[in-house]
Amino acid sequence: MNPRAESQKRIDLLWQGRVHLGDEAGVHDDARYGGLCLELPVQLFPFNSKIEEGDITFQVTTEGVQEFAAYPGHRLEIFGYSEDGANRGHWRRKLLAASPIKSAGEGTAEVRVQGILPEYASVSIGIDTQLPPGLYDEIIVRRVSIVSDTHYGLVGFRRHADVLAHIFGQ
Fold first, then answer.
1. Which of 85, 106, 143, 163 could lock onto 63 through a cystine, CB 3.0 to 4.6 A?
2. To the nearest whole number, what is the mean pLDDT of the chain?
3. Domain for residue 1, yes or no?
4. Where are the alpha helices (DSSP H) in the chain?
5. DSSP secondary structure letter of residue 150
């Protein structure tokens, strides 16, 4: 595999919209209220079958982010999911990477995941809940993308027919 130059990497838009995160519903009337966290399931696919390891940068575009001294801030977390071999139909969740969302106002937070990547992952954006209730920052999540020269992604999990048949007894 010949990695492409940074300017040649493929950018995949996974999701775009306006979701309001925080503890005061209705503050942003032009966005759906999501509560304290937004998590999107993402299925990852290598560009070709010869790719064994990957390199993906997950990007989340937000607006309205504020930073408060002595508090850790909002979090961008990437989780990987793998089937529990001892308990078919059950899954293990593992934190792959995390980063604080530090882009004050409008900006893009990034987190990079490298190595052997799971087929199933999720992108989680969480509000800093260490502030007292009622003082949580109200933010808007606008876009979730991935940048990679090894993988592309789709929102949602698409399971293989044999696993579905086993789960539903067909």
1. 106
2. 85
3. no
4. 161-167
5. S
